[in-house]
Amino acid sequence: MIYVTSDLHGYPLEDFLALLDGAGFSDRDFLFVLGDVIDRGDEGAELLRWIAEQPNVQLILGNHEAMLLACDFVFDDITDDNLSRLSSDKLSTLSTWLYNGAQPTLSGLRRIRDRDPDVLEGILDCLRDAPLYETAEAGGKKFVLVHAGFENFDKNRNLDDYAADELIWTRPDRDTRYFDGATVILGHTPTHYYGEEHRGKILHADGWIDIDTGAAGGGAPALLRLDDMQEFYR
Ligand SMILES: [Mn+2]
After folding, report:
1. SS in 3 state form for 62-107?
2. pLDDT of 72 higher than 80
């Protein structure tokens, strides 16, 4: 069966594995993680490491992973002492990521690199290979999986013609409509943004479903099983 989750934002790996366990997730199932695994919480690096090692887990790129990739130069022999030798462009890119909660991710990835540089390379490769969207079929229905939604949406526009920023930074309005024949599953915007009554719960809109249940702000991630649309919480 196909499961989706999103916006783990450094949620404790052990608690996330318990969520999967409680949902009956096994080697025979497949999990899509719709981006923003890292930042804000403490265990983003460990979550990425776990995701990169699973054959049946696929990461879709989020804006936080895109910010990390834009800063991959920080893993090349850069210490706090020689940061000042970075170009002002790179310093500005790095400060944007840090402003968005990168510090625990950066520390975690440096720890992994110091212990085993190959593991860090595996994680960075997993991020560089992560697609901006995926399509899936389950329970006789079609789904499009993406981090944030589709900015400048046009149903005649080819999915490959969207720029990364249009898929990882947008926030749909509550009455946004996307495709006629497929349901969009997205994260990025915590469901309580659409009203307190949605806090911590998966939000079903018209033709799209928001599964960001607010782990970034102290909440917990959820799982949605596409085959039967069952929701799982801790
Ligand atoms: Mn996001």
Report:
1. CHHHHHHHHCHHHHCCCCCCCHHHCCHHHHHHHHHHHHCCCHHHHH
2. yes
- Calculate how far, in angstroms, residue 148's C-alpha sits from the geometric centre of ligand 1: 7
108 burial (CB, 10 Å; 0-12 / 13-18 / 19+) is buried
What's the 81 CA to ligand 1 centre distance in angstroms? 31
Q: What is the pLDDT of residues 100-127, one digit of tens each?
A: 999 999 999 999 999 999 999 999 999 9
The pLDDT of residue 75: 86
Q: How far is the CA of 76 from the centre of ligand 1 (A)?
A: 26
What pLDDT digit, counting tens, does each position of 153-187 carry? 999 999 999 999 999 999 999 999 999 999 999 99
Q: In CATH terms, is domain 2-132+191-202+214-232 a member of 3.60.21.10?
A: yes
Cα 229 from chain centre: 20
Alpha helices in 171-211 (DSSP H): none
Measured in Å, residue 232 CA sits from the centre of ligand 1 at 21
User: The whole model's pTM is what?
Assistant: 0.96
The conformation of residue 24, written as its DSSP 8-state character, comes to T
Domain residue spans of the chain: 2-132+191-202+214-232
Q: How far is the CA of 89 from the centre of ligand 1 (A)?
A: 23
Q: Encoding tokens for residue 119?
A: 């593991």
